[in-house]
Amino acid sequence: MPAPVSTRFKQTILDSYKLVSKVEVIGPGGQILADSGALNVIGGRINVDASASFRRWISDLTLVDSSGLLVPTTAADIFSPVAGNELVLYVGAEVDGVPEYVKQGVFFLEGCRTEDSPGGLQITLSAYDRGRRYSRGKMIVPKRFLAVNATYIYAAITDLLDDVINPTYVLHDSPVYMVPDQVYDAGTDPWETARELAESMGYELWFDRDGNCRLTQVMDPNSPNLQQHWTYAEGPGSGLLRIIREQSNAEAYNGQIVYGENSSNSSPVRDIATDDDINSPTRWGGSYGKVPEFWQSDKIRTVQQAHAAAVGRLNQRKGLTEVVTFACVPN
Q1: Could you give the strand order of the β-sheet that contains 170-171, starting from the edge strand earlier in sequence?
Q2: Contact by Cβ (8 Å): 245, 324
């Protein structure tokens, strides 16, 4: 989801501009421990990958510590990896002489490196979005869900995450699918388990740039309901610097066949979703043929859920025959 920005911001970033950034350190109770007034960011990398376990992470976030007071020497210091603090990172542009910032995410601090060099004292941080906190909180005791209790999957996901951080709020649209009989042993990763439950009904679980946990349906990339947020086109003022186009059929499946088998089902369930767009170059049964991918999950209870999972997986894999990589003025 795009962040709201001004019209002048959109115009400014199409050409050379002054990049601005700031970072806040948030304590476990939500209090601001340090802000941009004390933290001078000089570099770093922001990563966003919808296929990764943790969708957002930052690496090599480097700050200059001119006072020498930010170097962690005790477990309670703000950049100590065991203090439980989070970073809120903003990046933006100077628009008409005034900084305009865009929030990039809320990140759980994981690593800190201090370097004292002729250039000054520098602190380099690494951090992941809040999903990492849940992943680290492995199940202490076994957990069991019974089909007879008719627990919605979204409620089971919330329950799993609540065991790590209570309360946990998951934003969702109340999908109707229910959990079959499931037993999770001690030591199980609750975040990965919750993500697998989401995938079993064609949804994905992730944290947005504001640190909200979201359970959302995987959308068809060709859906007219998807809003266009930005356009890159060749020509002056486009912001494009380089374009690379790659084509391959290695991961191009035009059908998803999903099986569900568990103790709640009297027999395994199965369904299929196919690319039936008559204008698609990989249309099922067209010149590309029939190239299915098979997937099985013990979290699928009904044929309807198997179909929803198949549609979600198909939507995630559409268009993988062609990948466009481009370099641009930072947006």
Answers
A1: 170-171, 213-217, 203-207
A2: yes
Distance CA(206)–CA(50), nearest Å, equals 8
Coil, strand or helix at 120: strand
Residues with Cβ within 8 Å of residue 228, at least 6 apart in sequence? none
Specify whether the CB–CB gap between 190 and 160 falls below 8 A.
yes
Compute CA distances 331 → 31, 51, 106, 205, 206, whole Å: 30, 21, 19, 25, 22
For 284, the token pair is 């099922």
224 Cβ contact partners less than 8 Å away, ≥ 6 residues apart: none
- DSSP code at position 311: H
Q: How far is Cα 1 from Cα 327, in angstroms, rounded to an integer?
A: 21
Helix (H) / strand (E) element for 161: namely helix 153-162
β-pairing verdict for 322-328 and 240-247: antiparallel
Residue 119 has pLDDT above 80, yes or no: no
Q: Note the pLDDT of residue 149.
A: 96
Average pLDDT of the chain to the nearest whole number:
92
CA distance 123 to 66: 10
Cβ atoms of residues 63 and 23 within 8 Å: yes
Dist CA 21 CA 324 (whole Å) = 28
pLDDT band at 249 (very low <50, low <70, confident <90, very high): confident
Taking the C-alpha atoms of residue 59 and residue 47, their distance in angstroms, rounded to an integer, is 8
Q: Which two tokens stand for residue 220?
A: 């068809």
Cα 99 → chain centroid: 27
* Angstrom distances, CA of residue 91 to CA of 22, 34, 44, 331: 7, 17, 11, 9
Cβ atoms of 194 and 161 closer than 8 Å = yes
Can you say whether the dihedral through the CA atoms of 94, 96, 98, 101 is positive or negative? negative
Percent of the chain with pLDDT over 70: 99
- Average pLDDT over every residue of 242-269: 91
